[in-house]
Amino acid sequence: MSDDFAHNDNWASNWAPVYEKFNSIRGRVAEAEETATFLERYCGGGSALELGIGDGRVAVPLSERGVRVEGIDNSDSMLTLLRERSDLINAWKGDMAKFRTEQRYNLVYCAYNTLMVLVTREAQINCLRSAADALHDEGYLVLELLVPAIGGFVGGQKTTTTLVDHENTFVTADIHDPLNQNLVSSLLWFSGTSVRRLPYRVRYVYHQELDTMAECVGLKLSERWGDWTGGEFTEASKRHISVYRRAGL
Ligand SMILES: C[S@@+](CC[C@H](N)C(=O)[O-])C[C@H]1O[C@@H](n2cnc3c(N)ncnc32)[C@H](O)[C@@H]1O
């Protein structure tokens, strides 16, 4: 793996300046209220910890509902964006693949496919273990992940146009690394006469593998939804919201 993709600072320094605009175009800013409404139900009036909190897209509306929200991110650029938006949230710089905290939370959550930015199975399991350790005995872990779409690759590569409007064109170029379940990708964002290249790398994971990884750290699936409004998870779903609790509850 090239360092270019392995280093999150690189990821974030590319994405941070355009993160809110990108999410706004993709409908993710508008969706954050729905996400916060969903998550609030699992907080029991208590506290929540977001893994990969970013600019607070979800954490800010959740904190505005009276939940005490904390967060971890390993990017200074993203934490700066968060601090510019809110002083309600205690967020610190750290690696969600191996964090330890004395605090215990009603809810730990990781939205917007963020678990996938950990590009090895070990890192993903370690993250789930840290998350499980950070939960109150009766707490919830909520994960939002897309359903892997690895059809359509020719010779291990695929190019997909995901948006064309009067101002912007988004083209994603993916290289598939099947041995590691990795996608090495770049979003090419054409706007006016300029183009911005936004590289990233992810390890995709199917929902049943996710359940097995969660079981490895003492958690058990309690609910699975197809979106943040509580839509059903079906074979047509493009993502899932999975809710885990301690096994035995
Ligand atoms: C897709 S963004 C999601 C941000 C936010 N959760 C949201 O829903 O808008 C992924 C975030 O995870 C952070 N991140 C990536 N790798 C990380 C790691 N190993 N530890 C902590 N944060 C990480 C990035 O800096 C970025 O802010």
Q: Quick gist of this model?
A:
With 249 residues, this protein is of the alpha/beta class. The chain has 8 helices and 11 strands. GO terms for molecular function: methyltransferase activity.
Structure commentary:
The chain has 249 residues and is of the alpha/beta class. The strands form two sheets. Strands 3-2-1-4-5-11-10 form a seven-stranded mixed beta sheet, with helices on both faces. Strands 6-7-8-9 form a four-stranded antiparallel beta sheet. It has two domains: 187 residues, 3-Layer(aba) Sandwich (Rossmann fold); 45 residues. It is globular. The longest helix is centred in the N-terminal third of the chain and has 13 residues. The structure holds S-adenosylmethionine. S-adenosylmethionine binds next to helix 2 and strand 2. Pfam families: Methyltransf_25 (PF13649). InterPro entries: Methyltransf_25 (IPR041698), SAM-dependent_MTases_sf (IPR029063). One of its GO terms (molecular function) is methyltransferase activity.
User: What's the mean pLDDT score?
Assistant: 94
Query: What are the low-pLDDT stretches, counting only 5+ consecutive residues below 50?
Result: 1-7
Which quaternary structure do these chains form? single chain
Q: The CATH topology of the largest domain is what?
A: Rossmann fold
The share of residues in extended strands comes to 25-35%
Please name the CATH architecture of the largest domain.
Answer: 3-Layer(aba) Sandwich
Distance between the termini: 40 Å
Which hetero ligands occur in this complex? Answer: S-adenosylmethionine
Q: Per the principal axes of the C-alpha atoms, what is the gross shape?
A: globular
In the sheet with the most strands, the strands line up as 3-2-1-4-5-11-10
CATH superfamily of the largest domain: Vaccinia Virus protein VP39
> Considering DSSP H and I runs of 4 or more, what fraction of the residues is helical?
25-40%
